[in-house]
RNA sequence: GCCACCCUAGCUCAAUUGGCAGAGCGACGCUUUCGUAAAGCGUAGGUUAAGGGUUCAAGUCCCUUGGGUGGCUCCA
């Protein structure tokens, strides 16, 4: 991901369910003005300043870095200096409590925010003891970036200053008029963390405090409640509760163990996707998990990607490497014979398991792991086929995602970085246009990540949002102008000459692990019927009803439904509760009445009592929902 | 990898200033055979993540390692 896409994304209209309330709030209060012009933005920006004032009251030696509003809140970065042992001073949980108390107290004292400006020279003198502010001033004066790190168009001669009480900060604003306009009971300090100055891990690590601020207490409570709700749909929590997957220190971090239920959901997802691939002109291939070093030398991975690869495996005095990608293998399949222009396009698909080194601090449930299975494919085609291939790939991708009920995502088009790109400009231009045209034809909104492409080709990425609002890339469609060159791939054209094919990498679900993580959170564990590991729970009221429950279960299983019979020694209420907690779509209660009239009492996990149905009617209903991959029961 | 915090029974959590390791759920056994979200009684279950240290005494304090959480950085 390139720098330009890492901008703040305060666009609340992204439609993730969790923030639905917020959208309403925002538009009501602000008439849909952009976030940076909203009152909430000023409130948060002001809260950041007053928080810094509070920090200085406890840590007078702290140096100020930056403190901008962000989505749902604000932060401020500080350098607290070193203690007598030369260790960086950090905030303790008690410090944060004290700072929050002081912040609230300072807000109530109602100081006025006064705006002014200074010449660059005056500002450098005024902030002489604030090294981070001095660096910011220098960069503003040099016309490089503003105080938030965003590029600016021309050098500035005057810098903005905001002051309340004795606290003076280099700042463009805007702020509220008086500190009291930030309600003390609508502000909360959330956490602290380390953060590198200028986002550069080679520079000083600062101490960041995150806080949140809202118009009033009710909004703050709503926000905190939303955070609580979000935690309930965290795939790591649900993965344990629903017995879907686990990891084990004995196996190693970032390596997933799929349990029977999670494995079944994954299998169902894969089965559907594989069949769709076969129906859409793809060929399924398989390749090994390791390959000789010569392969990775030719591909360039040992030059460019070595840091992400695991160390060599020695076999017969030769070095082999675990694959971080599938592409070299698919290229070898292509190269196993000569190709005529008539053979193209060729679409080689594989559920390929790859292993990549991830630094220990970045692993996250199923979302970021060290071993994962991509729904990978490589398209090889002629120039004249290329635009249609892109179109097909994108539409196929949207079809697959929508089949899983996913229709809210961010699309990005990443374009060429002139400084580092392989392949000629004309190919880049054609390819980028094909991607853009496909996005337009699919009527997708997308952001352009200027210069964000890999050195080997432009791409489209689709990112989904998890329960906590974090974005995760699933789909990618990317050109590769590098590998066909390195592997000297050719086909014989109509003119009898050898030509280089276009090569497109694409993954739709991305990786099965990450996709499952997103899927679990998307449905909060309540999978649609076609994906539910257990679709029907038979609930006999007393032991004498078990034979009938088994009989019904067999009839439903014969139709392909996944049915369990709860023959345990518990009361019906408890069995229902258990099935509810496991988010089983249908509970079929059978007692004397049902046995007598040969029906089942249908209850859904949505707490709906559907009354009695004949087994045949229930079966027909369920099969119809399965056929259409219905999201409702 | 960096910063902070966390790790007690299968799960969720208690345990006063350092002073006898506990509860609920789950599992198992017995009783109960029940009508739409938790029946009753009983039993088993622990080297308090691992290792080291301080102390008369460590779940609690200190150090090391491992794992996790939230950020930062990274994620062609």
Total DSSP E strands: 28
| Strand percentage | 15-25%
Strand order of the largest sheet: 11-15-16-23-20-19-17-18
Largest β-sheet summary: 8 strands, mixed
Instruction: Count helical runs.
Output: 19
**Cα separation of the termini:** 39 Å
Mean pLDDT: 90
- Give the helix proportion (percent range): 25-40%
Oligomer type: single chain
Structure classification: alpha+beta
Approximate shape: globular
Uncertain spans: 1-30
Cα-based radius of gyration, to the nearest Å: 29 Å
Characteristic terms for this protein:
alpha+beta, 5-stranded antiparallel sheet, 19 helices, disordered N terminus
Give a written overview of the molecule.
This protein is an alpha+beta fold and 633 residues long. It has 19 helices and 28 strands. The strands form 7 sheets. The chain has an 8-stranded mixed beta sheet with strand order 11-15-16-23-20-19-17-18, with helices on both faces. Strands 1, 2, 3, 7 and 8 form a 5-stranded antiparallel beta sheet that branches. A hairpin with an 8-residue loop joins β7 and β8. It binds one RNA strand of 76 nucleotides through β7, β8, α7 and α17.
């Amino acid at each position: 991901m390139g720098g330009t896409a890492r901008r703040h994304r305060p666009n609340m209209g992204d439609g993730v369910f969790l923030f639905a309330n917020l959208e309403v709030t925002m538009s009501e209060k602000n008439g849909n003005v952009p976030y940076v012009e909203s009152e909430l933005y000023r409130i948060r920006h002001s809260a950041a300043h007053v928080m810094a004032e509070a920090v200085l009251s406890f840590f007078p030696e702290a140096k100020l870095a930056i403190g901008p509003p962000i989505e749902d809140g604000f932060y401020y970065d500080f350098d607290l200096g070193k203690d007598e042992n030369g260790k960086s001073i950090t905030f303790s949980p008690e410090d944060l409590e004290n700072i929050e108390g002081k912040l609230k107290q300072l807000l109530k004292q109602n100081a006025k925010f006064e705006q002014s400006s200074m010449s660059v020279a005056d500002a450098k003198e005024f902030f002489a003891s604030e090294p981070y502010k001095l660096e910011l001033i220098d960069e503003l004066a040099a016309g490089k970036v503003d105080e938030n790190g965003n590029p600016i168009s021309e050098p500035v001669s005057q810098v903005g200053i905001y002051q309340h009480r004795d606290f003076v900060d280099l700042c463009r604003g805007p702020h509220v008029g008086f500190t009291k306009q930030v309600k003390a009971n609508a502000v909360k300090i959330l956490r602290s963390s380390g953060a590198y100055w200028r986002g550069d891990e080679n520079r000083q690590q600062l101490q960041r405090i995150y806080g949140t601020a809202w118009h009033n207490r009710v909004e703050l409570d709503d926000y905190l409640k939303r955070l609580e709700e979000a935690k309930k749909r965290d795939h790591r929590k649900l993965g344990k509760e629903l017995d879907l997957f686990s990891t084990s220190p004995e196996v190693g971090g970032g390596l997933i163990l799929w349990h029977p239920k999670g494995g079944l959901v994954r299998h169902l997802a894969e089965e559907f996707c594989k069949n769709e691939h076969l129906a859409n002109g793809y060929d399924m291939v398989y390749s090994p998990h390791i390959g000789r070093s010569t392969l990775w030398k030719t591909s360039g991975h040992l030059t460019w990607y070595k840091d992400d690869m695991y160390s060599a495996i020695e076999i017969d005095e030769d070095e082999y490497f675990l694959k971080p990608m599938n592409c070299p293998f698919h290229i070898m399949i292509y190269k196993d014979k000569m190709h005529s222009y008539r053979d193209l396009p060729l679409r080689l698909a594989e559920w390929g398991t790859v292993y990549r080194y991830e630094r220990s601090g970045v692993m996250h449930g199923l979302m970021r792991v060290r071993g994962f299975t991509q729904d990978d494919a490589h398209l090889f085609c002629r120039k004249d086929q290329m635009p249609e291939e892109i179109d097909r790939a994108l539409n196929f991708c949207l079809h697959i995602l929508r089949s899983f009920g996913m229709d809210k995502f961010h699309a990005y088009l990443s374009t060429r970085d002139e400084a580092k790109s392989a392949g000629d400009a004309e190919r880049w231009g054609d390819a980028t246009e094909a991607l853009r045209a496909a996005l337009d034809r699919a009527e997708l909104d997308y952001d352009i990540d200027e210069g964000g492409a890999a050195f080997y080709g432009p791409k489209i990425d689709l990112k989904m949002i998890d329960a906590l609002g974090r974005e995760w890339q699933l789909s990618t469609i990317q050109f590769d102008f590098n590998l066909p060159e390195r592997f000297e791939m050719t086909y014989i054209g109509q003119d009898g000459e050898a030509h280089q094919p276009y090569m497109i990498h694409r993954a739709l679900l991305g990786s099965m692990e990450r996709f499952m993580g997103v899927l679990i959170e998307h449905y909060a564990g309540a999978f649609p019927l076609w994906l539910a590991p257990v679709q029907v729970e038979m609930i006999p009221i007393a032991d004498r009803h078990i034979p009938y429950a088994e009989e019904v279960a067999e009839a439903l299983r014969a139709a392909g439904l996944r049915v369990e019979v709860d023959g345990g020694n518990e009361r019906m209420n408890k069995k229902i509760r258990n099935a509810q907690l496991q988010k089983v779509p249908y509970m079929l209660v059978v007692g004397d009445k049902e046995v007598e009239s040969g029906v089942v009492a249908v209850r859904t996990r949505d707490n709906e009592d559907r009354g009695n149905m004949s087994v045949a009617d229930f079966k027909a209903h369920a099969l119809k929902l399965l056929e259409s991959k219905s999201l409702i029961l």
